[in-house]
Write a structure and sequence with these properties.
The chain has 4 domains: about 210 residues, 7 Propeller (Methylamine Dehydrogenase, Chain H), CATH 2.130.10.10; about 70 residues, Transcription Regulator spoIIAA; about 90 residues, PDZ domain (Pdz3 Domain); about 150 residues, 2-enoyl-CoA Hydratase, Chain A, domain 1 (Alpha-Beta Complex), CATH 3.90.226.10. Helix content is about 15%, strand content about 25%. It contains 10 helices and 35 strands. Strands 18, 19, 20, 21, 22 and 23 form a 6-stranded antiparallel beta sheet that branches. A hairpin with a 2-residue loop joins strand 18 and strand 19. The longest helix has 19 residues. The chain starts with about 25 loop residues before the first strand and ends in a 16-residue tail after the last helix.
Length: about 650
């Protein structure tokens, strides 16, 4: 601060998603050391200590464990940090294969000076003699020097006696105390549900861990260590450290805070900021040959004429479109008027108009034990079947041309009564209670997927597996597990990635589908076990289309690169300059600057604005689909069956049992 000069003491080898903090740092109490983390080439974090006096960094850990969030004890005697030996796969953040992997960490303490005793040494159980109670003389509070003895430091790293868990946000308290957050090890968070993480206080002297404050999302210890500001979901509170805070105490009323804004002044700043974000984050410093300064001047001419925040987004989008790259988008920000939306209500059905009534043409089955796949008409006590008529909704007679959906306005999630019957006259009708859903997408998707599976099964005599992957992220990972493993005994496979929304590097699919045969294992009873069991060595075909993009481009590109099999369908979207996160605009809006571009040593830049073309192009028209056909799937079935005829799978026979007796 005295010189006004900043100095770089380290930088990351790899850039990563900005939503993941990678460099953590903490000052020693005497301000002579900075403890910080840097990742290795393997993306494993290591702790270093930088000496202000020596202008030199020293490694604290060896880079073979993931170590992060270093903090100094207020006494300057110890350095606390989180350490994990199972974080390696999880740190490979672009790999889809780690979707369901979780890492745990433990809390460690490094004794910084060689002449200090072990603060966690086993204590004697002998009773101490009675001593005279004398009050120590108060000494003026001074900051003691915090030297670090690096020789033998690795032997002075100790584990805090706590089980491994999902720990984060280490912060120092008074000397011999630190705080941390413990979160559930699952990530099944329900939006709007109470915060499940707990703030703990650990006292080194007492060797006691205390669940200090429940339901803490984030927190900050004051500089004098006497108070804590914490957030629970969207509520903020400030509490004193002693006595132990009571739940709900110290809540800050932020609901009445109002800020006057000048939208037009903000829009100019936001426009300039979006331009700067692209200048500084776009993957290609040459801005694809575009004169970026000139683009700013060109589109700034529209700023005086903007009427809404939406107009601003449109102008920024026009400017960014000059770079001719996908994943370039933005939105959000302050909207001065939010229109209230009124939900509808859906029954999970298709209708036809017959005999002056609406008739249930198809009722979509679901999995009523799964809230995301609940089918209102198939629940116990409802049992509406295709072919029945919808006579009335909430007691109101329903006939065309009245819109069948208008009577379900604002009914999603609510109990209503509908009247259904076997004939349009209403005789024999019954009234049932039903709870409509807000969205039928999951029901219809499941119906489409399982309908395709049945088509493939029937057309191939059960020899070919069908697996649909909606993206290369969590949902795709779940779908693949759900549908691939039960069909892994089949001779061939069709992978359908149409409408694929992308996500990560699809190594999970490719690695499993490339598994070669290892061996068979004979047992006294039953069939021989093939290893790997979940593997298909026969023909493989992938269906692609123009709506699949991003990771949906990368998956078929990998399919072709690794010679997995034929691609059938239409050329994919063509967007493989991805996005890794950017600064938020001043009103909470955002704009991307694609900064993650694919290239190969032999081909250079690939896929972006090109897509992945099929080996066999098949058009899918609305007329085909309406008439119950899927030309792309039908072609994939033909191709895979032709390949099975050319290369029928071998049926190995168990060898004769060995004779080893003499």
């Amino acid at each position: 601060m005295k010189t006004g000069v900043s100095k770089k003491i380290g930088s990351e080898y790899l850039y990563g998603p900005s939503r993941r903090r990678t460099i953590y740092h903490a000052w020693s109490p005497d301000s002579k050391w900075v403890a910080y983390t840097l990742s290795t080439k393997a993306n494993i974090q290591t702790v270093y200590a930088y000496s202000i006096e020596q202008d030199k960094s020293f490694a604290i850990t060896d880079g073979l464990s993931e170590v992060t969030e270093p903090i100094f004890d207020e006494s300057g005697k110890y350095l606390y940090f989180l350490g994990s030996t199972n974080a390696g796969p999880v740190k490979e953040w672009f790999a889809q294969s780690n979707q369901d992997m979780r890492s745990t960490s433990s809390i460690y303490l490094a004794v910084l000076r060689s002449n200090l005793p072990n603060p966690l040494a086993k204590e004697s159980d002998e009773e101490k003699g009675i001593t005279k109670d004398e009050k120590p003389k108060e000494q003026p509070k001074t900051t003691e020097p915090s030297p670090i003895d690096f020789d033998g430091l690795n032997n002075r790293i100790l584990a805090i006696p706590l089980p491994a868990g999902n720990y984060s946000n280490l912060q120092p308290g008074t000397a011999g105390q630190f705080y941390y957050i413990q979160s559930p090890e699952d990530d099944n968070f329900t939006p709007g549900a109470p915060e499940r993480s707990v703030l703990h206080q650990y006292d080194l002297t007492k060797r006691k861990d205390d669940a200090f404050i429940p339901s803490v999302s984030d927190y900050l210890v004051s500089a004098d260590k006497k108070k804590i500001l914490y957030r629970s979901n969207i509520a903020f509170s400030i509490v004193a450290v002693t006595p132990k805070p009571q739940p709900g105490a110290g809540k800050i009323n932020v609901d009445d805070i109002e800020v006057r804004i000048d939208p037009r002044a903000e829009w100019t700043q936001i426009f300039n900021e979006a331009w700067r974000i692209n200048r500084d984050y776009f993957y290609a410093p040459n801005m694809h040959g575009v004169n970026w300064a000139a683009m700013k001047e060109k589109y700034a001419q529209f700023l005086p004429h903007l009427a809404t925040r939406g107009d601003l987004n449109r102008v920024i989008q026009w400017m960014c479109s000059e770079l001719s790259v996908g994943h370039h988008r933005g939105g959000g920000g302050d909207t001065l008027y939010q229109a209230k939306t009124v939900p509808g209500g859906l029954l999970g059905a298709d209708y036809s108009v017959e005999n002056g009534r609406y008739r249930f043409k198809k009722v979509y089955g679901g999995l009523n034990w799964n809230p995301d796949l609940r089918s209102p008409l198939t629940e116990p006590g409802v049992n509406v079947k295709a072919g029945e008529y919808l006579i009335a909704v909430r007691g109101q007679d329903l006939r065309p041309p009245a819109n069948v959906y208008q009577l379900f306005e604002n009914t999603a999630g609510k109990i209503i009564e509908i009247t259904v019957g076997p004939n349009p006259a209403g005789s024999g009708a019954r009234t049932v209670q039903v709870v409509p859903i807000a969205n039928e997408g999951a029901l219809r998707n499941r119906n489409w997927v399982e309908g395709n599976l049945k088509k493939v099964d029937q057309a191939t005599g059960g020899r070919v597996a069908y697996v649909y992957v909606p993206n290369t992220a969590g949902a795709g990972h779940d779908y693949f597990k759900r549908y691939f493993f039960p069909q892994a005994y089949k001779d061939a496979i069709i992978v359908d990635e149409r409408f694929n929304g992308g996500g990560a590097y699809a190594d999970y699919y490719i690695d499993l589908l490339r598994r070669p045969l290892g061996a068979y294992w004979a047992m006294r009873y039953g069939a021989d076990l093939k290893t790997p069991a979940a593997s298909i060595q026969g023909p493989k075909v992938m269906i692609i289309d123009e709506t699949a993009g991003s990771g949906g481009d990368l998956l078929p590109w990998m399919w072709r690169k690794f010679t997995m099999g034929k691609l059938v369908g239409k050329r994919t979207w063509g967007g493989l300059v991805g996005i890794l996160g950017f600064p938020v605009l001043m009103d909470g809006g955002s704009f991307t600057a694609p900064n993650f571009a694919i290239w190969t040593p032999d081909e250079g830049w690939v896929v972006e604005n090109i897509g992945v073309p099929p080996d066999i192009e098949v058009e899918q028209t609305p007329a085909d689909v309406i008439n119950g056909h899927d030309p792309q799937l039908e072609k994939a079935i033909q191709v895979v069956m032709d390949e099975l005829k050319k290369n029928p799978p071998s049926q190995p026979k168990r060898p004769a049992y060995p004779v080893k007796g003499k």
